[in-house]
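wait is this the right file?? whatever heres the structure
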């Protein structure tokens, strides 16, 4: 093809894909486009990348806020400070203006005045819109109201914002727009930004906790040929080069335990998992979890680690063991409460020991709490008890509570208890009615594991979409010998919900899953609401 042909095709695609978008620009946006063009005409790049800030608002506030107006004026020699960030509000008085400014550390304000700022800087100021990213140099002073500000001697627009921000006091009022346009939510909502900064601190402390205990952080595959490691419906995909179907991992468990076989005796992974299930206030199909495994440990050791980790994070972050969640106060002060599943069902549902043996009674209690009551008749006694716990008991567990001694029927990867083979050495931690952690002494008997995989395969053939496959390679790994091991998974998103007082998981995931957005049609009317 000739160069002219490529050029014509390129212009065709621009017309098809760029023009429909720019034709939706509002009058405000066209005015901003004109200012962008004026900057270009001044030989000033509206998207320049050669100016670097040397200071942060937060540091200036820490250093100077306690000084009076007179004390600041008396400082000698005068220092010049260099900031860069986004202008959120412009309060103009003709030849001077105060600008509400945000550099990502703390809100601040700039003062721009003709004759104080240089000539080029004042030209830039006259082309300024709220939302623009600016670079400025100047001295610190205090206003007559005692507010700290920077008096600009140099001022440049370094990124021209074509789209206006939402009205300051209302922001993005539509929750879906907040999740879809997280970048705008973070600009306008400091609470949202602080929430994700806190999430980052939580994850940092988790890493430090395990590094200090001689764990190795590892990465395991996200594409699996076998559905395993948990009971969940997977997302399926296809690998073209290998010519085989694959699934996105539902859990990293089986790969992490392979590493224990290989001699890496303490491993952890902060991993992304994918489960093709419903979306709710505490479920997102793509989520973050922590999984860690330790050789020569038991589920009692895992319980201690979990309790220590969570209580330490809370105390380090808030200098107290108590957090507020809505109107509740939740205490992370150890030790946490501990109950067997059987005792929890009996005590919280006010049942007798005889009631606990009555399968029909448990089925009757559940008939109004499951989608298909007829299926209750096909469940074993242990599965009925577990369903009673899930539906009727767990919502009542507000304070941190370890539920132990799970039936073997619902724990295909857990080690049987030596004294009672009908249960496994497993616990789950519940807080605010949510499952936060799941741990057990790992099954390392390859024959027992193979038989449990076979049972899962039968359940899958009977229509259980959450049953796992037989992972023969994992069985082979166990046949080489896995030391006695315990492991645990902790849901990071739900933990962050608790510690940030968030009532929906979407508030702690930067980019939660949403329906596909359709542009050039109804989308414009929705976005227009924000402008």
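ok assuming it is, sequence goes like this
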């Amino acid at each position: 093809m000739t160069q002219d042909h490529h050029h014509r095709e390129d212009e065709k695609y621009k017309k098809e894909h760029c023009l429909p978008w720019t034709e939706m620009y509002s009058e405000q946006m066209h005015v901003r486009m004109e200012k962008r063009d004026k900057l270009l005409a001044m030989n000033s790049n509206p998207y320049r990348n050669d100016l670097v800030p040397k200071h942060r608002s937060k540091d200036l506030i820490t250093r100077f806020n306690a000084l009076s107006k007179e004390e600041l004026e008396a400082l000698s020699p005068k220092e010049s400070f260099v900031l860069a960030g986004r202008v959120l509000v412009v309060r103009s008085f003709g030849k001077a203006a105060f600008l509400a400014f945000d550099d990502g550390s703390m809100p601040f304000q700039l003062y721009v005045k003709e004759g104080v700022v240089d000539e080029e800087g004042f030209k830039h100021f006259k082309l300024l819109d709220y939302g623009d990213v600016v670079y400025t140099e100047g001295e610190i002073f205090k206003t007559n109201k005692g507010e700290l500000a920077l008096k600009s001697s140099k001022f440049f627009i370094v990124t021209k914002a074509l789209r206006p921000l939402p009205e300051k006091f209302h922001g993005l009022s539509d929750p879906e727009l907040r999740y879809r346009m997280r970048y705008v939510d973070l600009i306008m909502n400091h609470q949202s930004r602080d929430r994700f900064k806190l999430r980052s601190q939580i994850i940092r402390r988790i890493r430090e906790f395990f590094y200090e205990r001689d764990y190795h952080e590892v990465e395991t595959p996200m594409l699996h040929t076998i559905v395993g490691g948990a009971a969940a419906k997977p997302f399926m995909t296809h690998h073209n080069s290998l010519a085989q179907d694959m699934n996105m991992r539902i859990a990293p468990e089986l790969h992490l335990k392979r590493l224990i076989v290989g001699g890496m005796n303490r491993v952890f992974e902060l991993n992304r998992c994918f489960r093709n299930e419903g979306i709710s206030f505490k479920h997102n199909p793509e989520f973050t979890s922590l999984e860690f495994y330790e050789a020569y440990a038991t589920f009692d050791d895992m319980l201690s680690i979990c309790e220590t980790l969570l209580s330490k994070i809370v105390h380090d972050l808030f200098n107290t063991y108590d957090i507020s969640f809505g109107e509740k106060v939740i205490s992370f002060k150890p030790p946490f409460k501990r109950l067997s599943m059987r005792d929890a069902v009996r005590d919280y549902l006010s049942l007798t020991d005889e009631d606990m043996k009555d399968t029909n009674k448990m089925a009757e209690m559940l008939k109004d709490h499951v989608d298909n009551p007829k299926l209750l008749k096909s469940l074993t006694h242990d599965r009925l008890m577990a369903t009673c716990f899930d539906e009727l008991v767990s919502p009542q567990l507000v304070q941190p509570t370890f539920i132990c001694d799970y039936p073997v029927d619902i724990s295909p990867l857990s080690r049987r208890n030596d004294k009672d083979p009908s249960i496994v050495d497993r616990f789950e931690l519940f807080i605010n009615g949510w499952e936060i952690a799941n741990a057990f002494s790992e099954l390392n008997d390859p024959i027992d594991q193979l038989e449990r995989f076979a049972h899962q395969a039968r359940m899958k053939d009977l229509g259980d979409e959450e049953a796992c496959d037989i992972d023969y390679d994992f069985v082979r790994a166990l046949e080489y010998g896995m030391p006695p091991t315990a492991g645990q998974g902790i849901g990071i998103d739900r933990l962050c919900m608790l510690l940030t007082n968030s009532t929906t998981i979407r508030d702690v995931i930067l980019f939660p899953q949403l329906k596909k957005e359709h542009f050039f049609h109804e989308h414009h009317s929705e976005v227009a609401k924000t402008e």
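The two ends are 44 Å apart (CA to CA). so i think its the right one actually
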